[in-house]
Amino acid sequence: MRVLLVGGGGREHTLAWKLSRSRQLKQLYIAPGNPGTVQLGANVKIKDNDIVGLVRFAQEKKIDLVAVGPEDPLAAGLVDALSDVGIRAFGPTAAATAIEADKAFAKKIMHSSSIPTAEGRTFDNFRDARAYIASRDSAVVVKATGLAKGKGVFVCDEPSDGILAAEKIMVDRVFGDAGNHVLVEEKLIGQEASILAFVDGHNIYVMESAQDHKPIGDGDTGPNTGGMGAYSPAPIVTEKLISQIEREILVPLVDGMNRNDTPYKGVLYAGLMLTAGGPKVLEFNARFGDPETQPILMRMKGDLLEIMTAVCDGTLDKIDLSWDPRPAVCVVMASGGYPGDYEKGKVITGIEDAEKNPDVKVFQAGTKTQDDKLITNGGRVLGVTAMGANISEAQSRAYEAVKMINFEGAYYRKDIAEKAMK
Ligand code: AMP
Ligand code: GLY
Asked: How much is the pTM?
């Protein structure tokens, strides 16, 4: 099969790596890809939000399947545009991507499908949001309802901070139109877990669990990021809990999307808080998580291209997958200053040494080549991922690899996967 993978981050390097191992793969293109994907296929200079350019390329190259990594092209209707010209596309339509791109829509579907989630209210103006937050005497979570690269959520222990957050979103408009509405939620308490599932419109295949580390600082301190590291499996997510999540969350969501005439196909990512009262949804994403994909796909045995095809064709019930029982840990190395301002262009060394260990893979995200050198080109630069006989071995292997890699100002959390060992 001829495949076009859309995106250029750490998730896409991981997807390209896994797709490149498929027996069905004849040719892999990645648009735009990154220096990590160069070794796995042909990078194509088309931006991931250039819908017209991507469709034209897919037609020209007679692509059999387009796999869409990031949320922006999904929300912009790439899958719809490809389907219109008869090209198989892995991912939800624009209307179904609203489950991620519009948190107010997601809340509505959750309510009408009785899916457990934080209580919340949506506002279209700052005055009403402020009055509501001020009337609450407990912690609040304030969210821009649109797409904000994982940074549009503010967990505020004091209502006064919640008002500042709403002001930032609605008055200062730091996320642009993504902040036209805010969602104000109760703060849920518990451990978080990410559950990703393949969905073909009706059938659901739940992947192995993972846990992300969203805040920038050790001990979950500081502002939220796109994700600073992840591990799989999350020991807190038992078989019994998985069944409960499937029964109470995933199945009702897929049914609710069908009732709403926005059938869901692709990867459904449920960000959950495991509260004393059971699992509750923090958010849905319409795609693979980044960096959860790195440890999850390291552990997946089976042909990703076959699965993606089954998702597109509605034959997921025919697919059987198995998983490497060994845990995997991914530590994200970021540019100093991220998620705020940071410098680019720092030379990266040591990846080859780190990858000498066959249980280590370094997935590239914000990188670029210049004069034959690999340099930093983004906030999250690398996802250093390792497998081990147990979580502690995977963790120490990942950190050993991290120590072999250098670039000026490199920052990483020192406590990734610590929670899994408690
Ligand atoms: P989201 O992008 O909606 O998943 O939010 C990003 C992060 O903010 C989550 O991973 C949680 O750590 C935190 N968060 C979001 N909503 C809540 C909530 N209702 N209660 C507590 N923490 C939350
Ligand atoms: N790691 C969180 C996300 O992909 O949204």
From this structure: 0.96
